[in-house]
Amino acid sequence: MRTSAIITTGNVGLVGGGGRTMAGAAAWLALGLAAAMAQPAPSTNPPAASAPASVAPGPTAPATAAAPSAEAPAPAATAPAAAPATPAAAPPPATAAPVTPAPAAPAASVLPTDEAIAAAGFADEVMLEAKPALVRSGKTVWDDLFGAFRRTIAELKAVAAREGAEITGPPMVRFLSSSDDAVDFEAILPVKDTAKPAAAYAPAAPGTTPAGKTLRFVHHGGYDTMEQTYDEIANHLDERNILAEDAFVEEYVRDPDTTPETAMAIFIYVFPKATPTR
């Protein structure tokens, strides 16, 4: 490696490198001595301010040796290797906005409309067709008649929901027998089908809705006025000499779970006995 050195006297500078520095210094010393011999004797005047500078080359040589280290450029500091850039974290995948399912279309009501109920007459002849149903037997006292019906119908609805049986019509109650204290009945819930094994529908059982030729009567209001309606039905049958089966059916054409008892509407089906042929 070459190292630069600068030797300065007055306004004169020699620039060299390595061994050439010492040679330059010796030449400069020889020139200085020759100049001194050529000058006249010194006067008594104070020496010029520049005189000391003329003998400065003597001790300059060793100084020049140190100059390279003073003037040598420091080795460039090696910049530390840049730390590898940490890759930017990949943005999380965009989460799709949850899709709100469209509301299901309301199921068609299995109950008659208010217009159909209002149009129903007293003792209309109606032919009922047998349809698949869930059936549950029960027994209750007269004072708890309507409450027992509602509880049993609720059980049937729970079974239908559990087994995926689609309800297709209003719930019914068939009266089987009665005494002064109690009533035996069957709660009936029409469904689309009862294709599963019978045990799947426990505590209900698969069955069918009542079927056949009937006379349909309508009762409006709560059970506390039901006796009056049955008296009117009995009078209607007696006046026409119509004999009826002991079993009769009530169909709750307004939902007993959501309708106040006083706003209830119930179709009552009476099954006339066949007239004996002569």
UniProtKB/TrEMBL annotation:
InterPro entries for this protein: AraC_E-bd, GyrI-like, Reg_factor_effector_dom_sf
Pro residues biased stretches: 89-104
SUPFAM superfamilies: Probable bacterial effector-binding domain
Name of the protein: Effector-binding domain-containing protein
Biased composition annotated in UniProt, kind: Low complexity: 39-88
Region (Disordered): 39-106
Gene3D superfamilies from the UniProt entry: Regulatory factor, effector binding domain
Lineage: superkingdom: Bacteria
UniProt-listed Pfam families: GyrI-like
Residue ranges constituting the AraC effector-binding domain according to the UniProt record: 121-271
Signal peptide: none
